[in-house]
Write a structure and sequence with these properties.
The chain has a six-stranded antiparallel beta sheet with strand order 5-4-3-2-1-8, covered by helices on one side. The chain has a four-stranded antiparallel beta sheet with strand order 7-6-9-10, with helices on one face. It is α+β, with helices and mostly antiparallel strands and 181 residues long. Helix content is 30%, strand content 33%.
Length: 181
């Protein structure tokens, strides 16, 4: 072979191609990891938003509870279901009094009003409501509250299942009632 010939040997080309393939493979893994992380972060954000919206919905529903006025109906609070009238904002932008029922349907915590169902939380195994008689240090909680003219001071909601978290967890919400009838 002449000494002044220029070019690459087969070994040099093979090493260059191998190194290029390794760089492409590492870059692919890095970008795949970033995309997966963004997807998981987006799912977690959506789950937190949904949970916050459900809590806000419950606070507004109990906060604008309407018991004792004409046509409102009473407060029917049972261990696994509660039903009452509340003022809710409708699509047109104003408030309407609607009868709201909260309970578990097909493994989901559901709020049902005017024939529409709103899923507040998925993967619910069990749901319990308790009702506070009066505020104070020696306050008593009762398992049922059925009255055509009054509502409890607060409602405690215990959710077993807690959505997408571990199956054995229990989440407890304490919701204060608005002006009582």
């Amino acid at each position: 072979m002449p000494a002044d010939s220029r070019g690459f040997t087969l070994i040099e080309i093979t090493i260059a191609l191998t190194l290029s393939a390794l760089v492409v493979l590492v870059a692919h893994r890095v970008f795949t990891g970033v995309v997966d992380g963004v997807g998981r972060l987006s799912e977690a954000r959506l789950a937190l938003d949904r949970e916050a919206n459900a809590r806000r919905f419950l606070q507004e529903a109990f906060g604008s509870l309407d018991v004792g006025s004409e046509g409102a109906g009473g407060f029917a609070g049972h261990t696994e279901r509660v039903e009452f009238a509340t003022w809710q904002r409708v699509a047109e932008g104003w408030l309407e009094r609607r009868r709201l029922t909260l309970g578990v349907e097909t493994g989901r915590f559901i709020a049902r009003a005017a024939g529409e169902a709103i899923a507040l939380q998925d993967s619910v195994v069990h749901l319990e409501f308790d009702y506070l008689l009066q505020p104070g240090a020696n306050a008593a909680w009762v398992r049922e509250w059925i009255s055509p003219v009054s509502a409890p001071v607060a409602v405690r909601v215990r959710i077993t299942g807690c959505g997408t978290r571990e199956a054995g967890c229990v989440d407890t919400l304490l919701i204060l009632i608005g002006p009582r009838g």
